[in-house]
Structure formats: structure tokens, C-alpha cells
Amino acid sequence: MLIFLGASGLLAQDGADPKPKPEDYEAHAQSRSAAIGADFMVHSFSGQGVMYVAPDYLVVEVALYPPKGSEIDVQPMAFGLRLNGKRTLEPAGISLVQSSLEHPEWRQAPHLEAAAGTEGGGVILGAPPPQRVPGQAPQTGTSQPLPGPDEDPIAGGVTRMPRVTAEELLVQTALPQVKARAAVSGYLYFPYRGKAGSLKSVELLYQDAVVKLR
After folding, report:
1. Cα 177 to the chain's mean position, in Å?
2. pLDDT (tens digit, 9 = 90+) per residue, 31-80?
3. pLDDT for 119-130, tens place per residue?
4. Where are the alpha helices (DSSP H) in the chain?
5. CB of 203 within 8 A of CB of 82?
6. Cβ atoms 183, 71 nearer than 8 A
7. For helices 94-102 and 166-173, what crossing angle results, to 10°?
8. pLDDT in tens, 169-190
9. Rounded to two decimals, what is the model's pTM?
10. CA-based nearest residue to 34, from 212, 185, 172, 203
């Protein structure tokens, strides 16, 4: 019997796996309704052993921890990202972020995609990737497609599924809009095409809390 390694229902917006407590994140604070933990990922998001880059967005992994016995109403649009103490960004809708990943040709700058933790992982710069001449070795830095389930047997009769795509992982790990009595985590995407190096301070805003990310 074959066992497939991979997640099902990739188009469901489930959020990321929260860490045990807010202090496990690089930054944390307390709002009037929940404790907050957050990591500033710059442009990257990850899950299931792969990492991708959303070049047009600043990415924050955030987790909310309600008080014991209490329920919180998680609303991604309730967050803001304040840059250099002045400019405040609102989160982008996931459908907009997904479109930017599916159509990198819409961007003026080269598209950058990164994958790590799987066979065939690599970095792609520019879109679309160059075509390979038949018989020519693949160019360094391009990502080759993984073989199908029947072509990639693993010892013991286990078969590996193809890795999750950037678009699937984006939807699956985005911070969900839910009511919850337990910790909820996920990624937020703030539109930004400037240079990350120019950001002297980055603060996540939520209710009355200010989470200092940089």
C-alpha cells in the first residue's frame, strides 16, 4: 500500500502552527484582548519544508494567544505595520498577494522565488525562466520539477508527493479570520516595493499594542 506524504486541502486557509507561547517569537507584546507573538520575515513565508518569497510585500508571522477561557475574534485587517515611525501599511488581501505570485510578469522588477528543504529546491530570478536547449545541462539556480509520485519511490513503499506550490502555501498559512479560544497563527502581507535595508524601525500595530519587529 502506498502512503503519500503531503498535506491535503491546500486551498483551505488554516493558518500556520503557533509556537507554544508568545515569548517563543522574536517580538511579543500584550494587547487588551490577547498576547501577541511575531517574527518579521522581510519577504519570505514558509511551511512544509519549503520557503518562498513575496517580493512586493513585507511579511510578518503573527500569533494571537487569548486568555484562558476567553474567545478572540481574529481579524487580519485589524493589524497595521508602521515603518520608520511614520508610514503605516494595511495588510493586503490574500487574493491580491496570490495574483502577484501567479503573474510575476506584472512586476517591473525581476521576480525572485526561493525554495528550501526539498530535493530540486533552488532560486529563480527573472520570469519566465529561460528555456533549456535539448541535451544541455540545466543552468545553475533554476528549479527543476519534482518527479511524479510513481517516479519517486522511497524505501518501504512510501511515495513522496510533489512539493506545495507558493500559491497553495500562501493561502494555507495566511492568518485566518476566525473566532478562537486557542492560539491562532499565520502570515500577514503588507504591500511594499521599497528597499528593506532602508527600514530603520518596523512596528506591528494591533489594538493598543505596539510590537517592535525592528
Report:
1. 16
2. 999 999 999 999 999 999 999 999 999 999 999 999 999 999 999 999 99
3. 444 443 333 444
4. 94-102, 166-173
5. yes
6. no
7. 170
8. 999 999 999 999 999 999 999 9
9. 0.70
10. 185
C-alpha 76/C-alpha 92 separation (Å) is 9
Whole-number Å distance between alpha carbons of 36 and 211: 8
Handedness of CA 54, 210, 180, 19 (dihedral sign): positive
- How far is the first Cα of the chain from the last one, in angstroms, to the nearest whole number? 50
* Interacting residues of 147 by C-beta distance below 8 A, sequence separation 6+: none
